[in-house]
Design goal:
heterodimer, A: alpha/beta, 6-stranded mixed sheet, 9 helices, B: mainly alpha
């Protein structure tokens, strides 16, 4: 469904992403981990159209989407959330999500109704009329996901939607991600919360210095010598998770 | 909330429509016409700056283009100023598209600065290109009675200005209720997030600025015909650009009624202060500018959402008391 072919992105002398190739099948949930500065968010920026890669192609359903604008890629069914959430601060939570729904629906009333359903799914219905900027971070992260879902993506890139959440919020977010996945959305998930990641994803890829150093089931990745050295520091046992 | 504002608008525009039937005083009618015109022009500014977030401090450029087009076509070439108005709109669309395109390269303050520069360039062109514009002498627009020539009585001008105001108010209300308006709000709030939600931000910014420019040009054309004189140092001035912004900010940026409320306050205050404090009699020439500035500071300090925010606050307080 999503295919990266030798994607490289440089900033001046720094190679943020180096020759990353990755194939994600429809309905998969792939976790992306790696230390800070490993190039995870840069990779998302390339896939979603925010950066044009210096080398390599990105394909969605076999179609080359390299160099398309983010809004065009969204219309083709791939969108992303932002690590530093970007709510439309002065608008209500419902309006935030309605704007997402308006990408597919031309009619405002239909978009509103649809946005209400999305809020329900994401547990945001009680906050529909609140101004987005007034929400605590946990809810703003959820709004970020809700807004992206309102565009009805087939592929969704989640950039650290669990970072900074308290245990209750974290559990709710894991539940939400599971539900979205169960509805058939293909997910790429960047996360630092290893425990959650190990439980969620059946496949994990590891980036280190912009290179893809491991790709496989969580247990295998957690035991991989290079991953342990680069990222986990000590062997991560699934039992702890 | 919106309902309250709509009723307020209905009341204001209704009063404006009825006033000429009761009052015939030329000074009063003149004030009313200017309130409506400046309100409409501020609403036009609001389209780009308030709704789409592309804050311009050079809208005098489009105003001046409209004013000059109408004045040249009617005074110099003896055609109907309505044709001049159409010419002004066409030129403003072209200029607005260029400025709108710039908004894709320059964001925030840099965009605002570029709009100021653009209006200043037009000021220089208009004041130096004497063979076309008569330079700083300006162009007097002859009064030829009739609708086609826009030589109208004060009462008729009230209704022309009112029609303009209603039309622009309608455009703003449309922006609050339509897909386009929602998407522009997304662009205003966060462009990157808007892109991720499938919004073609670059195209929409150009569209908003162009629409705003065209509406401003129409206002400029009508103003020139009403006042009867076009002077480059006035129509392309930064003062004028700031007036559009001020009215809107004081009334409530990004709200349909805000520009009109701001215009009522500022235009009448200005007219009153000018009449009271200017001239040899008092020796307070220019004091209206000081008072004008003080009002602005007070509004920005105590009513950051403008006069419209005042109504919102009045409504919000009892609700909070219940909760």
């Amino acid at each position: 469904m999503l295919r990266l072919e030798g994607v490289t992105k440089r900033f001046g002398g720094l190679t943020a992403v180096r020759a990353v190739s990755l194939e994600v099948a429809a309905g998969e949930l792939v976790g992306i981990i790696g230390p800070n500065g490993a190039g995870k968010t840069t990779l998302f920026n390339v896939v979603a159209g925010y950066y044009r890669p210096d080398e390599g192609r990105v394909r969605l359903d076999g179609r080359d989407i390299t160099g398309l604008a983010p809004h065009a890629i969204c219309r083709l069914g791939l969108t992303r959330t932002f690590q530093l959430v970007k709510p439309f601060g002065n608008l209500s939570v419902l309006d935030n999500v309605t704007i997402g729904a308006l990408t597919r629906l031309r009619n405002l009333r239909a978009a509103r109704a649809d946005a209400e359903r999305v809020l329900e799914t994401c547990g945001l219905a009680p906050y529909a009329t609140a101004r987005a900027r007034a929400l605590p971070i946990g809810l703003r992260k959820r709004l970020e996901v809700a807004r992206a879902l309102a565009t009805r993506p087939r592929v969704l890139l989640l950039d650290e939607v669990m970072a900074g959440l308290n245990p209750a919020e974290l559990a709710a977010m894991v539940e939400l991600v599971r539900r979205v996945h169960a509805e058939g959305v293909t997910l790429l998930v960047i996360e630092h919360v290893m425990a959650a990641m190990m439980r969620l994803a059946r496949r994990i890829v590891v980036l280190h210095h912009g290179e893809l150093i491991a790709d496989g089931p969580p247990a295998a990745v957690a035991a991989d010598r290079r991953v342990v050295d680069a990222y986990l520091g000590e062997e991560f046992s699934l039992a702890e998770a | 909330m919106a309902g309250l504002r709509r009723r307020g608008a209905l009341l204001l525009f209704g009063l404006a429509a009825l006033a000429p039937l009761v009052v015939r005083d030329a000074y009063f009618l003149d004030s009313l016409i200017l309130i409506l015109m400046w309100g409409a022009l501020s609403a036009a500014w609001n389209v780009a700056s308030g709704y789409a977030g592309q804050v311009s401090l050079g809208h005098a450029a489009f105003f001046g283009i409209g004013a000059y087009a109408a004045a040249l076509v009617s005074a110099r070439w003896g055609q109907s100023p309505w044709l001049g108005l159409l010419l002004g709109v066409a030129l403003s669309i072209a200029a607005g598209a260029v400025i709108g395109y710039l908004s894709n390269r320059l964001r925030g303050p840099y965009f605002a600065l570029s709009t100021i520069a653009f209006s200043q360039v037009l000021l220089i062109v208009a004041s130096r290109w004497r063979t076309l514009t008569a330079g700083s002498e300006g162009i007097p627009v002859p009064f030829r009675p009739g609708f086609w020539t826009l030589g109208l009585s004060h009462v008729a001008w009230v209704y022309v200005a009112l029609a303009l105001a209603l039309l622009y108010y309608g455009v703003e209300v449309y922006l609050e209720r339509s897909r386009l308006g929602y998407r522009l709000a997304g662009v205003r709030e966060d462009e990157d997030a808007a892109e991720a939600l499938g919004i073609p931000t670059r195209r929409l910014k150009v569209l908003a600025v162009t629409l705003s420019a065209a509406l401003t040009a129409v206002g400029g054309s009508l103003w020139a015909q009403y006042v009867g004189f076009v002077d480059p140092f006035y129509v392309f001035s930064i003062d004028l650009s700031i007036r559009f912004a001020l009215n809107t900010i004081i009334g409530g940026t990004g709200t349909a009624l805000g520009p009109f409320l701001g215009s009522i306050l500022i235009t009448s205050l200005e007219t009153y202060l000018r009449a009271t404090f200017s001239g040899v009699r008092t020796g307070f020439t220019g004091i209206y500018l000081i008072i004008y500035g003080a009002v602005l500071i007070l509004v920005v300090r105590f009513l950051p959402e403008g006069l419209v925010g005042l109504a919102r606050r009045a409504r919000a307080t009892p609700a909070r008391a219940q909760a």
